[in-house]
Amino acid sequence: LRERDFMKWKLDYDFKQYDFRLVLYMIALNTIGIFIVRSATSAESFKDPLVVRQILGSFVGLAMCVGISLVDYRKICKWSPWIYILSVVILAGVKIYGTASGHGATRWITVPVLGKVQPSEFVKVGLILFFADYLQKLKEDINHPHALLMEALYFSIPVGLVMIQPNLSTTIIMTVTVAAMTFASPLKLKWIFAFLGAVLFALASLFYLFTSGLYVNIPFIQPYQLQRILTFLNPAENSDDFYQQMWSIMAIGSGMFNGKGLFNNSIFSVKNGNFLVEEDNDFIFAVIGEELGFRGSLIIIIIFLLIILECLIIAYRAKTLSGRLICVGVMAWIGFQTYTNIAVATGLFPNTGITLPFFSRGVSSLLSVYFGFGIVLNVALQRKT
Q1: 125-141 pLDDT, tens per residue?
Q2: Distance (Å, rounded) from C-alpha 93 to C-alpha 87?
């Protein structure tokens, strides 16, 4: 019996199918990210506490990723209702016991040894697992209004808790992620067009409210968020609030094609002049642009694109609908978050305060990304023949 069980396990996990390309892409980005974090924090060596924390988080994350990749994702999906409940409880606890930031946002909890942790980063993975299992179970009835309404209800609870932290950027990422997963399910085009129409109507309404001066009537946007949007729409009239993105754009442009080099001591560096804000977090792409130049930035973007393409290939070859939806969810999450961070740094989006995966300093984001990709790697291990 043990031999038969071992053979069955061996058959399910043919390591010839292990996606080492995806692992290589992740290690490449994470390694570059550690060098960028050291430069962004102006650390004198890799022994600096902030850099050491990032390195330890990288090793723990990679080990966790490999370990999770050997666990059958279908078994994890069976626990998704409990993962969902735990996510809701943790988010409610953040609002009650969390640590507030300068803007009054309560997004972190303090954990012994680990320090500050942002639970919403891990909730992203929890929602991907829950809705992959939910859409798998209801694939025959997904086009019924009742099924879609229940999905919207399940989605609104954790996202509502994230919204009131307040954390609008994470709310948008979660919405895009779950929407992409729903679109990848056996959903009819009429529902997709209806959703896209509602999104366009909402965006048009917001644009009208901001351009007509009626934005004070929007209940779910905080004053500092309103100011960021107004700054984006009229940077000339809000120059004092636009300086973050202005210096970021200047840093990226000053790197030109080759960049100024990592750890440089140039007096002409925007970063070295302490003009950048959150240069090791939200605006870390400005450091990438200045020190690695257009060439280095393009290589990093190409690696991100290769990761997205790899997720799509794994999704196409997945054995089950839930496996396909997990890959689509992780792809949408990483792809949209990466694009948003770069768009903010280059002035294409309002300042949202969102991290760049594998690069921004912070263990919560790093571990959650590795957790998500660990599940994707297991889906790849069980691909269709």
Answers
A1: 999 999 999 999 988 88
A2: 10
